[in-house]
Every structure is written in C-alpha cells, then in structure tokens.
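FAQ
Q: What does a multi-component entry look like?
A: The components come first, one per line:
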Amino acid sequence: MNLIGHYNYLVSIFLMMVGFFVVICRGNLIKKLIGLNIFSTSVFILYITMGKVAGGSAPIVMEGPGPHIYSNPLPHVLILTAIVVGVATTAVGLALTVRIKERYGTIEEDEIRQKDESL
Amino acid sequence: MSDHLILRIIAKMFIPFILLFALYVQFHGDYGPGGGFQAGVIFASALILYTLIFGLKTAMRVVSPTALRILAASGVLIYGGTGVVCMVRGGNFLNYSMLADTPLAGQHLGIFLIELGVGTTVFAVMVMLFYAFSGRKGPEV
Amino acid sequence: MTTPLTAHLPVLQVILPLLGAPVCMLTRSSRFNWLLTVLISWSTFAISLSLARQVWLYGPITYNMGDWCAPWGITYHIDILNAFVLLIVTGIAALVAPYARKSVQKEIESHRQAVFYALLLLCQAGLLGIVITGDAFNMYVFLELSSLSSYALIGIGKRRRGLTAAFQYLIMGTIGATFILIGIGLLYNLTGTLNILDLADQLNRHNLITTGNRTLITAFAFLTVGLSLKLALFPLHLWMPNAYSYAPSVVTTFLAATATKVAVYMLLRFCFTILGHGALFQMTLGKIILLPSLCAIFIASIVAIFQYDIKRMLAYSSVAQIGYMTLGITMATPLGLSAGILHLFNHALMKGLLFMTMGAVIYRVDSVYLSDFRGLGKRMPWTMAAFVVGGLSLMGVPMTAGFISKWYLVQSALECGWWPVAGLILIGSLLAVIYVWRVVETAYFNPDHELEQRSHEAPLSLLIPMWILVLANIYFGINSDLPLSMATRAAHLLLGGSV
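Then the predicted structure of the entire assembly, as tokens:
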C-alpha cells in the first residue's frame, strides 16, 4: 500500500469527510452550503487525479515534432460541467437562504424548527 | 463607494481590460484554456466591479434587468438553435460538419456559436444573480 | 417509414421542453407560457408514443449526438424499458399541464407564475433526458438539471415552510447526486468509457464482475447510496414528506408521479444493464436493499396513519409504495422484476390522481387538514369520488391498477419462497386501507357543521385531467395487457434476454 504515492486520493477523501461532516453537524444554513461545496470539490480532485497520465502535459495541442504525451482531457471536461452544476446549486441554495431569512428572520436550523413547531 | 478616488480611478482603468480579457478567453477556447463559461464569468466580474464602485442604480442603467433576462434566454436559444440548424441541414443534432461547406469549417463555426451561446447565458445569469442578491431590502417587518 | 422528422424523434423528445423554457423566460405573460407548456407536453407525449411503438415493433433505437459513434460520443439509446418510463413521464406531464393553470393561479404569486412554467419545462426536459440517454455522465447532468428545477419549484409557493423543505431537499439531493458522480467516476476509472452499453461490455470482457474487483464494489456502493437518496428509499426518505406537503399542488403531482420513478429507472440501468444482468446484484446489493424496502413498506404506512395533513399522509404513502418497487427489484427474478417495473406505472397513475384531488381540494377549501374534509363528499362529489378510486387503487382492490402490481408482487414473493415477505405486502395493503378510510369516512360520513359557504365543485380544468387518470386506473386494472407486457419484456431484457 503506497500511502504517499496515493497522496491525491487521501486529500480527496479528507475533503470529502470534512465537507460531509459540516453538512450534517452544523445547523447554520450557510455553513451547510459551504460544506456542500467542500464535498463537491473533493470529487473534482478525484476526477482530475484520475486523468493524469504519467509524463503527460496539459491536454492542449502543442506545436512541434515528435510524439507528445498529453493527460486525458475527458475528466477535465467532466469536471467543468460538474463545477458549473456546483455553482448553480450554490446559487439556488443561497437564494433559498435569503428568502428563508426574510420570512423567518433567522438562518439557524434549530430556531427555524422552533418557529415552525410553535405555530 | 464612488467617493473613494483611488478605487474609482483604478476601476475605470481596469474594467476595459477585464472585458477585453473576457473576450480573449471566449474566442481562444480552442487553443488554450478558456471557453464560454470562464469568459462569461470574467465578463460578469467586470460588471460586478462596476456595480460595487458606482452603485446598483447606475449599473442597472448600464445593463438593465430586462436586457439580462433577454440575454440569458437568447444564449440558450443560440445553443439549441445551432443544434436544430444542424438537424435541418441533414446531420444529427449538433453535428457541426453540416453548418458550412467543409466539415472543418463547420466544426469551427459550430464550436464558436455554441461557446457564444454559453458565454452570453453565463454572463447574464451571473449578473442577474448579483442584482437579485444585492437588491434585497432586508428582513420583512 | 422514416421521414427526416421521425429519425430525429429521440432528440426532439428532450429538446422541445429544453428550448421551450428560455422562450417562457422571454415572455412575461403566464397565459402564453401555460399554452406553450400544454403544447410542448402534448407533443412530447405524442413523440414518446411513437418511440414506444417503434421500439415495440422493431427493437432498440440508437441516436448519435453530433454523429459521433459510441463510445466516443454521447448516444441516446431507447429500448423497451426506456420507452416504458418515457411514456410514464410524458403522460403525467401531458395531464399536469392543462391542470396547472387554475391551480397555479391559486397557489403561486402572480409575478412568479410566468417563471413557474419555465421551471416546469426544465424539470420535464431533465427527467426525459435521464431516461433517454445512453451515457452515464449525461445521466448525471440531466439528473442535476431536473433536481435544481425541482428545488426551485418546491420553494416557489406562498408557504414559507416550502422554502425550508426545498433547502432540505437541496442538501440531501446534492449529496446524493455527488455520490452518484463519484460512482460514475470510479466506473470511468476502471473501464475508460462512459457509454452504458460499452461499460457493460468492458466489465464483461475483462471479467471484473465475477472477480469482485474492489473499485467496482466501491463504485456500486456509492451509486446505490446516491440513488437511494434520490428515490427516497427508507431511511434516506427524510426530504420527501416535507417537500411534497409544502410544495404547490401541481409540483407535488408532477414530482410524486415522475421524479422517484426516474430514479428507480436509474437504479435498474446501473444495477442490471451495467452490472451484468443481475447475478452480482442478487448476491450483494439485492440483500442490502431488501431490508430498507421492507421497513419502508411497514414503517411508512404506519406513520401515514397518524398524519392529519393529508398531503403529508400521501407523501408517506409514496415512501411505502417505493418500498414495493424496490422489493420487486430485489427479487431479481423475471416475475419480481416485471412486478416492480409495472408498479412504476401503476403508482404514477395512483399518486398522480391522489395529488390532483388534493390540488382541487386546496383550490376550493384552502387547506388539506383532515378536519377540513368534513362533508366534502356532498360538496365536491366528483373530486372525492376520484379520491376514493385512487384510494382503492392504493389498497390494491381488484379492478383497479394497484391490484395488478400487488398481485404479481405477492406471486413472485411466493415463487421465491419468501412467505414472510408476501405476508408483509398484504399487511401493507391493510395499513393502506386504514389511512385511506380515515379520509373517506370524514368526507362522506361526518356532517359539516359550518355554513355552506364554500360549496362548489372544483372547476372543469382541474376535474378533467383527474378523471382521465381515474378512467386510466380502472382501465388498466381490468385490462393491463399493455403495461404488463411492456414490463415483462423490460424485465426479460434486463435479466439478459434480447430486446
């Protein structure tokens, strides 16, 4: 088990767990959204790491003779899409948070639940 | 923030360059990192900088919310429209080779139009988001 | 006879709603948007009928996007399972669209009504894209498209609890979708391809399934958990009761009848088509999903009995019905699998009908608490009759659609030798009797003490789609040849047969 060689994957899993913990264990709505973002970022690192070819350069066509080794461009494209999806999700989440703040007056989850139950 | 002299002058100097860089990133997506989404975000960030310095009302006179709504919808329609034109000219959906006389020219044109659509929509949506968030008044009484 | 138009039907199925949404954004008029939505929904239904007929007679259809062949390009692949789910989604959309006008006018503020239709079209496009595509990552993209529009649709109503419900759904749904993304990434890491049929081929060719490759098992663990979050399998169903009770009625009707079915379809695709026709599934994943399914049927039905908000009760009932679907799938025999797939269709009919009646009740009475149902049997006779038919279907009374799928489920449980499971299915039906009877009793047998102020029936535009579903429930209960044969062929296909 080559732990140091798999450094990228360890970082990815660490970020995944941090993000997941924040989503589950924090009651503030904004913190949950930030945790969700960290969680998504860990997946991006996982994909990009998978795309790296040993000795490969960035997947942009280079001029000049001879065979060039490029990293796999497909994971980069997939991650671009996933980043956009993450941005859109954060935007919808923040919009919902702003409207929740306007209607409830708070963004702490336990206070919101209290207000709902007291009615 | 428009009474801060340094901020105002630096913003005025930088915003044209940011816009130019956004256009560069948009059209050089084939040859380097770039493309529609990145360009749209950079373009939007120029407008957001303008809004931060000169105020929301002035920025809304420059780019009105109606114009943004039309731009956002048109970007998606440009993207879809390119695909439909490819279908009409005989290929499958989004088969760019059908757009021009040679497949190579068609591919160039196809990617250009697609990225243009994406860039327009992303720019419009980012600025709409900023307008929506910064235009809120605060908690209802 | 393939005219140029019919050759492009697979892509038109998704493009029509997808391009209809920005057109809805351009116009500010909710009337024009509603007409456009109705037009597009009916055209997508016509397209899916034509596609289903073509697949039934001639076999699977493949459409290469951009004329790039698989596995380099994204292909849309329609076989009998796809076509069946497409029929369900477009059928419900075609009925919800005319229903939406009056209901939206009642439940959503006027300046948001125009944008509502854009979101509805986007959600429809996303769901159709998930079903029709043959590329795993494309499935994820469309999944997120439909999910994001659902979050917005749930929060768009007037109730403030809709906002917190939408936020909770957003958090849980995004975690589920990210798990699915991780699963797809690991599968790509293993095989180098994203096309579903090619994934199955590669996994078979390199013998990765039978050797129990660790990456493969991890990928499927992530996929199963992510998909269970999306299809609200107990215990990951916590977002569903809130999301369904506090959303506008049109949204609840549409989502309850389509979103979870599409997630079940995704589970079937990943577990059967990619994982090699059920062998591995039956050994490992089947056992993992069995216990939550049984708990869902039993516990969700019991919780439904204690609810006073009837929409919430129906939401818990949905959780139980999803347990039936996944139970059919875990059996992984031809009979069990076709029972599960048939239940997708029947549940869409049942729950679509029931939530439409709730929308009509809200339109006239403004509330769906059990106490407000008093005397509704006399004042809104057509609506409550529709509710009774839906309830009978939910219980599984013969001559309604629900009976057919319950019958086949019990039969397949007995065939596997799982007697306790068969007993549990019957107990679930009895519990359904209890919670449906509460509403029927209050509506018909409790006199209304208040003045006869709100005394009309719901308007025709709400009643007609409702009664089309009532007739469909009864028709497919008496003569279920068509959906049953489609479900059986789909099960046969998934378990390794041809076409």
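Q: Is there any commentary attached?
A: Sometimes. For this entry: The longest helix of chain A spans residues 73-104.
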